[in-house]
């Protein structure tokens, strides 16, 4: 029989092959060389099986755990790993006086070196992070002034009421916001002769641009770009154009920007409650 690599067999396949070899040895008294020809296993492998059968019986023919034990050769103890994971989850490096803003492999390497006196390679730190279930992620920006509890209450209580009222009146809900716009393009790469870096001419002073927009839960977007910052007059101009384009009544959800509470805006909205409400 052609020689086979026993290691490539399944666990069950190896167990059955061991049993067959041992039974052939007992019943027919075949030599190791003959058993190797019949089974395809290497003679040295067969000798090991027969030795195990003599000392441990047929129970010794079962599959034994292969490779290193779990946790062997690790640089950190399980307690140390748990402590490090806890530090990563609880806060950021600056809170424990490390010179990093976010958790990176160099930051975690410094944490391990400072607290446990073990200097790991960054590649090994990455393996530990993967084992712990951590992945590299871009942080989400959140305004410092945001009140998470108030946001949760609005989403769970106020917004369902607003949505029900809009459905009852046949109105639509839009979400409005304002942002500054920078008029230079993203830097791009292009080809040029070696040593002759192309020059992209840009103005030294930027013209202030702002965008005001509104989007519905269905993804319908209305926006306007204006020069300068958003003030009460520009906000009213946008609202006027918005109600002209949308035939239904509009409930516009906005943030706490001062412009939204301006007296002229409130006065403009006073007689238009059948068309728009903030």
UniProtKB/TrEMBL annotation:
Residues 18-68 form the Insertion element IS150 protein InsJ-like helix-turn-helix domain. GO terms for molecular function: nucleic acid binding. Residues 173-278 form the Tc1-like transposase DDE domain. It comes from Acidithiobacillus thiooxidans (Thiobacillus thiooxidans). NCBIfam families: transpos_IS630. InterPro entries: Homeodomain-like_sf, InsJ-like_HTH, RNaseH_sf, Tc1-like_DDE_dom, Transpos_IS630-like, Winged_HTH_dom. Gene3D superfamilies: Ribonuclease H-like superfamily/Ribonuclease H (3.30.420.10). Residues 100-157 form the Winged helix-turn helix domain. It comes from the Bacteria. This is DDE endonuclease.
């Amino acid at each position: 029989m052609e020689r086979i690599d026993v290691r490539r067999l399944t666990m069950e396949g190896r167990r059955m092959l061991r049993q067959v070899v041992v039974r052939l040895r007992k019943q027919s008294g075949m030599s190791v060389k003959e058993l190797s020809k019949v089974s395809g296993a290497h003679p040295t492998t067969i000798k090991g099986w027969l030795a195990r059968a003599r000392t441990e019986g047929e129970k010794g023919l079962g599959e034994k755990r292969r490779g290193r034990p779990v946790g062997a050769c690790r640089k950190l103890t399980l307690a140390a790993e748990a402590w490090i994971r806890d530090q990563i989850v609880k806060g950021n490096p600056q809170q424990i006086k490390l010179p990093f803003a976010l958790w990176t492999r160099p930051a975690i390497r410094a944490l391990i070196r400072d607290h446990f006196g073990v200097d790991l390679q960054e590649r090994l730190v990455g393996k530990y992070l993967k084992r712990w279930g951590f992945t590299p992620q871009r942080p989400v920006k959140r305004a410092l002034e945001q009140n998470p509890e108030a946001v949760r209450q609005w989403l769970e209580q106020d917004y369902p009421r607003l949505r029900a009222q809009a459905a009852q009146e046949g109105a639509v809900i839009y979400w409005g916001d304002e942002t500054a716009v920078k008029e230079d393009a993203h830097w791009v790469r292009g080809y040029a002769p070696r040593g002759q870096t192309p020059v992209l001419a840009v103005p030294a002073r930027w013209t202030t641009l702002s965008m005001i927009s509104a989007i519905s839960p269905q993804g319908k977007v209305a926006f306007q770009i204006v020069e300068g910052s958003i003030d009460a007059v520009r906000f009213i101009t946008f609202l006027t154009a918005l109600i002209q384009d949308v035939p239904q009544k509009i409930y516009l959800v906005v943030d706490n920007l001062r412009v939204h509470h301006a007296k002229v805006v409130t006065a403009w909205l006073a007689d238009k409650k059948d068309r728009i409400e903030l």
